[in-house]
Amino acid sequence: MRLRNITGSREVISSSPYVIKEEMQRECAGRWKEIFGNEAPVRIEAGMGKGRFIYTMARLHPDINYVGIEKYSSVLLRAVRRMEREELSNLKFLRMDAEDIGSVFGQGEADRIYLNFSDPWPKDRHAKRRLPSREFLARFARILKPGGRLEFKTDNRPLFDFALEELNASPEWELEVCTYDLHSDEGLMQGNIMTEYEEKFSSMGNPICKYIIVRKQEKL
Ligand code: SAM
Whose CA is nearest to atom 6 of ligand 1? Predict the structure, then answer.
């Protein structure tokens, strides 16, 4: 994502009631039910961008808790502004690198993880930064309950092919669904919420790839 630094965004983010304070993040692990004040499942979007997807999901499913993770204040700001206009009690934000997700969520604490149009990091030496890499899949597997799902969408075919290869090297996961043209699949499109990037790239005619993978039940 091309980044424009927005003056004052850091200050807004660090004082927003919708964003978990940086110094409190590590205290969240194992306490998400307490933070939301209920027993509902917790679903995470890593790399949420401006937050249209996670905000819409939270509004449509008030019986589920959502946590959006975004690295940059300037981007997260848009989601915070949306919450200021219409607050949702089942949505929280974390401004952090998803690399540290294991210190903010306890083992098996999440019910589902979404990766939408993750940055491709095209250079080989940056492969470990790609969110569907084996390194990230191992982090996600730890915080996801057995039987929990990870859903990944992208229009970037090389990134999707990479993600499938990485899956083969990741024993914690099982492939449940895979399509190279999501928008032509009536069944999978039911309940599909378009992200900002999905709308942009599908309107340019790019097919959208999606997989759903499941965290295996057995202890690894
Ligand atoms: N998910 C949104 C969508 O589909 O419209 C945004 C996609 S944008 C290409 C990727 C976003 O992920 C950017 O906002 C970027 O800052 C964020 N991101 C990339 N790597 C990240 C990481 N390691 N931790 C947190 N956010 C990350």
Answer: 49
Q: How far is the CA of 115 from the centre of ligand 1 (A)?
A: 8
pLDDT per residue as tens, the chain (220 positions): 556 778 889 999 999 999 999 999 999 999 999 999 999 999 999 999 999 999 999 999 999 999 999 999 999 999 999 999 999 999 999 999 999 999 999 999 999 999 999 999 999 999 999 999 999 999 999 999 999 999 999 999 999 999 999 999 999 999 999 999 999 999 999 999 999 999 999 999 999 999 999 999 965 5
For residue 208, the 8-state DSSP code is -
How many angstroms separate the alpha carbon of residue 72 from the centre of ligand 1?
9
- Regarding the beta carbon of 143 and ligand 1, being less than 6 Å apart is answered no
Tell me the CATH number at 70: 3.40.50.150
Phi, psi of 92 (to 5 degrees): -130, 155
Tokens (6 digits) for 95: 């401004």
pTM to 2 decimal places: 0.96
1 is a domain residue: no
